[in-house]
Design a protein that fits this description.
It contains 2 helices and 25 strands. It is mainly beta.
Length: 287
């Protein structure tokens, strides 16, 4: 587990491109038969991925957390962006297909990941945050029948925004949030841009009470996303490739424009879970 410290907005004004990428960009998350993790001092979020191909991968706490097991004091949100796979939690099997999610509450002790087909391995992306209470573990699906231990994303949590004329026609699909999946502080979802649109979160905003991590995927090898961050009057950018993530502090904007349409997963932790708690930034005020 790599550990990264928090930074001041005053500091990044002096960062070179390499230093900016070193502090905020997360690369090489999806490595065959490994679990890769980055622990950020910014709200203590852990961003990681498990890519089982030939073996079962077990999630352990490591010396960085100084606890007996990974979710002793934490909660976990998972979204699969690869082939069908299985997550075992304390002996119970959850089959997680492409773009399906899973929430595991504090106190879940044994967690492991496997793929159904080694030629089309699962890619389990996850965010984890400190927790104070144990909530039920649930499988999260976009469609289907709701049953015990399975939550279907509600229609009001599938939101279409923007327009092709503004180059930001997109669909936001909310996975983990109040009223659908109970969690202590973790909120997660996915945004997919329609063909011809390239902007996400525009006009942009900050939310001083929550930080955010973006994972960009569905980007062809020769394409990229320009992720914009920094204070609204001191913006910076990071070039992001397929299946790379960016840590976004609460004081920073988090917006992007791609060389073509793409999809990204957003995960938020912090002071509250209010999706609409945003401080809007007027386009004319950006610098």
């Amino acid at each position: 587990m790599e550990v990264r410290t928090a930074v001041s907005p005053k500091d990044i004004k002096t960062y070179t491109t390499d230093r900016l990428r070193e502090e905020f960009l997360i690369q090489n998350l999806f490595t065959a038969d490994e679990i890769k993790m980055v622990y950020s001092h910014i709200d203590r979020i852990i961003t990681g991925a498990a890519t089982p191909v030939n073996k079962i991968l077990g999630l352990s706490s490591g010396k960085e957390l100084h606890c007996e097991y990974f979710l002793e004091r934490r909660e976990l949100g998972i979204i699969n962006i690869g082939g069908t796979g299985t997550v075992m939690i304390d002996g119970k099997k959850y089959t997680v297909r492409f773009m399906e999610g899973l929430y595991a509450g504090m106190g879940s002790r044994e967690i492991s990941f496997t793929s159904e087909d080694r030629n089309d391995p699962a890619k389990f992306y996850f965010n984890s945050a400190p927790a104070h209470k144990s909530y039920p573990t649930v499988l999260i699906k976009r469609e289907g029948k709701e049953e015990d231990g399975v939550v279907i994303i509600k229609e009001e949590n599938k939101v279409e925004l923007g327009s092709l004329e503004e180059s930001n026609h997109r669909v936001i699909c909310k996975y983990i949030l109040p009223g659908q999946v109970k969690s202590c502080q973790l909120v997660m979802g996915m945004t997919s841009l329609k063909p011809g649109s390239v902007w996400n979160t525009m006009p942009c905003h900050t939310h001083d009470r929550r930080m955010e991590v973006y994972l960009y995927f569905g980007i062809p090898e020769d394409a990229f996303v320009m992720h914009y961050m920094g204070e609204p009057t001191e913006t910076r950018h990071i070039v992001v490739r397929n299946e790379e993530a960016v840590i976004s502090p609460s004081w920073s904007i988090h917006s992007g424009s791609g060389s073509r349409a793409y999809t990204f997963i957003w995960g938020m932790v912090g002071e509250n879970q209010e999706f609409g708690d945003m401080d809007a930034v007027n386009n004319r005020d950006l610098r």
